[in-house]
Amino acid sequence: MTEVTAVVREMWYNDALGQNGPDMGGEMYARITPYKMKPGSREAATAKMNELKAEILGLPGMQHFMSAMNEDGSGYIVATVTDKATSESNAERVKAIWANFAEFLEEMPVPQGFDVVAEWRA
Q: Long-range contacts for 69-74 (Cβ within 8 Å, ≥24 apart)?
């Protein structure tokens, strides 16, 4: 996998939690994870992700979760959480969630963290 070097510029934000994004006076931290699924495993991996939705969204500080995947199984997870400390404290739980995908992944992904500098909605 290549290293993610992008800064988050546009994000959808889940304001149902009553929390503010950086442009609205609040703090936000993004965990961006590149991944690659094995050939032919996209459908099964997506089903597994849907099974784990409550666990994923139940991570402390979780504000927004998005998974984007191409037909070849390459993709990214973009998750926003309240702050860097919360993201770092979730590291072991995030690894445990990824372990559920071991049979589908070409290799275990490595999450990377970024300060969110802008979060816009149309």
A: 69/37, 69/42, 69/45, 71/42, 72/39, 73/36, 73/37, 73/38, 73/39, 73/41, 73/42, 73/45, 73/106, 74/34, 74/35, 74/36, 74/37
pTM reported for the whole predicted model: 0.77
d(CA 6, CA 38): 25
pLDDT tens, residue by residue, 27-55:
899 999 999 999 999 999 999 999 999 99
Residue whose C-alpha is closest to residue 90's, from 98, 23, 17: 98
70 token code pair? 């191409």
The single-letter DSSP state of residue 22 is G
Per-residue pLDDT tens over the stretch 71-113: 999 999 999 999 999 999 999 999 999 999 999 999 999 999 9
